[in-house]
Every structure is written in structure tokens, then in C-alpha cells.
Amino acid sequence: MSAINLLKELLKASEKAANIARVCRQNQRLFSLLVQEKEKDESNSRFDHDFKTLADCLIQEMIKYDIGKQFPELRDNIRGEENAKFTNTMGESVIVTVTDYPENTIQVLEKILNGDKEAASALVDEVYRDVELDTDALELPTDSIPLDNNWSELGIWIDPIDGTAEYIKGEEKLTKFPNIAAAGLKCCTVLIGVYETCQGTPILGVINQPFADKVSDQDQEFQEKYSGKIYWGMSIGDLKFNNIAPHEPDARIAILSPSEQSKYVDFIRNQLKYDVIYSSGAGYKILKIATGEAELFLLSKGSTYKWDTCAPQAILRSMNGDLFNLQDTLINKSVKKISYQDRKVTRNMGGLIAYQNIDKLREFLKL
């Protein structure tokens, strides 16, 4: 069993996901058909209105299909954020599925898209496209890395588009630090994380940022073109690999949610002397800790889920950092890592705190 083979398939799936996200976003007529409000039982309590898009559902089912086809023993352990049910403008409920037969997928998408075969075909082309990876650019390890686990002892969490609200609005807002966005498409990420089911420990993570860089402004079709970036990390036993270059931040930065409680903001700003900035997307914020562009991520509310954190936590662990339960860490003064052992618990109830450097976490606890 090779961890590199699994990582390659995750990277390919993430890039196909990014392509689907870009295709859906570039066609305004198509995009208006793709957005739907979630049912109450599947929405996030943070939002008065929580939305999913066809891109979310299609990406999730595509990743399940691709990874499950390559690793059949893993298939039943692949889970994601979205319910695959989508309702078209006629009120007809359709289950988004990806199978061995592209024509079946086209038929499903046509129903959702009110019979628009051209749009359905364009999306299906991306779902079944063969993606080539530049393994040199991605800095993949050349040696084989064995996995101690059987495939059936691994689980995968997918967040097909983390930051769906930003994906829908698309309004770019920057912070005073040029490499960190406050809101908009830059905050959207595709998250795929692998964990050991027995210990609940994340071991492989891929974060794909589909809209990392704008390569052209609006053209005659009112389309903006973007290119993406892919980040990955692996932490298996004592072996740790990733493709993230060391980075010295411009300042001592804490990255927080815009809705963070003022008592935490004041403490971080006044007692810890951090430069506080606000940004959207849990995956994006934790990514900025991994890249070293921010030092501290803290979220006091239990408003994230395992699909938000599995991939970025695996990347942090590959850098000797980690993601911790904030309330346990503060109350018990014991460093309790986020775990994926209990399949029934999907919410990170105690909030989060992330550092790339564990010594910095210990300094935080002393205060």
C-alpha cells in the first residue's frame, strides 16, 4: 500500500474539482441555475441562509467516484459535507450521481439545469476529464512511502467548496496584508483529508485553491479567468512531507472569523500583541497558518465540521503543527487535538486553535 499513490489520486481529484468550480463560476447564466438554499437540517447554524451549489454536489460525488474506483475498499469511508439532493426550478428533486456512464450523469444534470444539454455536457466533460499532474512542480516524494493501515482502516472527509457563500458572492476584499484575503473567491478551497479511523488522526491533506490568482479581467462574455494553487501535506509516523516553502510573516498575525467574540479579539490584540485580521473560510484561514503567513488561528464557536478541518490539520501536522480543541485546551490546560475517531460526531464543538509552532501554543497557554 503506497501513500504516494493515494496522494496522487487526491491531487488529481482536487484539480478536477477546481476545474468544475471555475467552469460553473464563469458562466453567469449557468451559475444562476446552480445555487440553492439548504434544507434546515443540513444548514449551518452560523448563517440565516445557508446555500449549496450544484458545483458542491457534483464535486463531492465526483471525488467519491474517482477515489472509490481507484481504491474500492475506501469507498464506504468517503464522506462529505453535502446532501446529494438538488431541486430544479420546476420543484423536481434530483439526486446528483456520478457513475461509470457519462450519459447517465448528463441526464441527471439536464434535469437539474432545465434541459440545458450544452451546460450539462460542459460539466460532465470536466467530471470525466483525465487530469495530468506536474509532479515536479508539486514536489512529490520520489521514494515509496508505505501505509501501515489497510485501505478499509482509512477514512476521507471532503469539503467540495469550503466558503460557498464567498463562491456565490465573489466579492473580493483584501486585508492590509496583500497575501491574505478578507473575503471573496480567494477564500474558497477544495478540501480532501484522509485520517486513520482507529486513532482518528489525519495523515494526508490536500487543499486546492481554485481562484488563487486572477489571470485576466472580465472579457466580452463577462468571464474572469483564474488559476489555482494546490497545497498538500503528509504525516505518517515519523515521516513528514509537504510542498509548502518556509515563510517569514510580515508581522505577528492572528487570523480570525469576522464573527469572533470580542473578549477573545481583545485578549489576542491587547494581551498577546497580535495584529488581528478577519477572513472567511475555515480551510483558508488554517491554510494561512500552514503557509506561515499568519501565526494564530482561533475560533471560539463550534461552527466548523470535520470536513472543514481534516485536510488542513493533516497539512499542519506535516509541519509539526496541529489543530486543537480550544475549550479543552483553555479549561483543562491540556493540549487536546481534533480527532476524527467518532464517526457520529461531525461538529468541532469546542472551537479551534491552530499553530504551526507548538512552542507558540505553549506560550499562549501560559497567558
UniProtKB/TrEMBL annotation:
<comment type="similarity">
    <text>Belongs to the inositol monophosphatase superfamily.</text>
</comment>
<feature type="binding site">
    <location>
        <position position="161"/>
    </location>
    <ligand>
        <name>Mg(2+)</name>
    </ligand>
</feature>
<dbReference type="GO" id="GO:0046872">
    <property type="term" value="F:metal ion binding"/>
</dbReference>
<feature type="binding site">
    <location>
        <position position="308"/>
    </location>
    <ligand>
        <name>Mg(2+)</name>
    </ligand>
</feature>
<feature type="binding site">
    <location>
        <position position="81"/>
    </location>
    <ligand>
        <name>Mg(2+)</name>
    </ligand>
</feature>
<keyword id="KW-0460">Magnesium</keyword>
<protein>
    <recommendedName>
        <fullName>inositol-1,4-bisphosphate 1-phosphatase</fullName>
        <ecNumber>3.1.3.57</ecNumber>
    </recommendedName>
</protein>
<dbReference type="InterPro" id="IPR000760">
    <property type="entry name" value="Inositol_monophosphatase-like"/>
</dbReference>
<dbReference type="InterPro" id="IPR044897">
    <property type="entry name" value="INPP1_dom_1"/>
</dbReference>
<dbReference type="InterPro" id="IPR020583">
    <property type="entry name" value="Inositol_monoP_metal-BS"/>
</dbReference>
<keyword id="KW-0479">Metal-binding</keyword>
<dbReference type="InterPro" id="IPR050725">
    <property type="entry name" value="CysQ/Inositol_MonoPase"/>
</dbReference>
<dbReference type="Pfam" id="PF00459">
    <property type="entry name" value="Inositol_P"/>
</dbReference>
<keyword id="KW-0452">Lithium</keyword>
<dbReference type="GO" id="GO:0004441">
    <property type="term" value="F:inositol-1,4-bisphosphate 1-phosphatase activity"/>
</dbReference>
<feature type="binding site">
    <location>
        <position position="162"/>
    </location>
    <ligand>
        <name>Mg(2+)</name>
    </ligand>
</feature>
<feature type="binding site">
    <location>
        <position position="159"/>
    </location>
    <ligand>
        <name>Mg(2+)</name>
    </ligand>
</feature>
